[in-house]
Amino acid sequence: MLQANPKWKWHFDIEQGQLMLDMDEMMFVVAAKKSKLLDEVKKEDIPFSVEDCDSYTVYYHALEDVFDLAEPILTQMALNATALVTYSKPMGAKSWFVNPNTGDIPDLFEQVVTLTSDTQQGLFLLLERANESSLLMLLNPSFELNGGSQMKQFELIRVINDRLGRYVSQ
Fold first, then answer.
1. For position 168, what pLDDT does the model report?
2. Of 66, 111, 132, 153, which residue is least crowded by CB atoms under 10 Å?
3. Inter-residue contact 115 to 159 (CB < 8 Å)
4. Spatial distance between the Cα atoms of 16 and 165, rounded to a whole number of angstroms
5. How far apart are CA 143 and CA 159, in angstroms?
C-alpha cells in the first residue's frame, strides 16, 4: 500500500479543471467533474489530512479484502474514494435509477455492495451510510442506470438503503 506522506496536498488545477493530489514526486488526478466539487477545494491547496489518511487506509483495505487487484489499482480506487467523499458537493438520493434489492442484504460492515438496474448489476464502494440512504462510488468501468443514463467509473450516486445488494465474490 502506498503510504501517505505529510507533504501530500490537494490541488485544483484551474487550466485542466481537475482536482489532483500532489504527492510531492507525482500528481494523482482525481476522477471528478469540476461542477461536482465543493468550491473550497478549488480556491487553495489543502493538506492531505489525518482524516484523509484514515479514509484512504480504510477504503484501501476494504477493497483489498474483497478483490485480488494490483496495488496501483487499489490505490487509485482508494484515493478517488477519499477525494470524492471529502470534496464532492452533497447530493440527494436518486434511487429511481436502480431497482430495489431482492436478494441478500449487506451487513453493516460490508463496504463493497451491488446495485442492479434493468440491464446490469454494478459493483460499488460504500463511502457513507446513513439511516435512510448511502453514498456509493462506482467501481466498474461503467454502469447503465434505469432510463438509459450511464455512470462512469468513480462517479457517485446516493440511493436509499433498500437498493443495496450484497456482493458475493466469485
1. 85
2. 132
3. yes
4. 37
5. 15
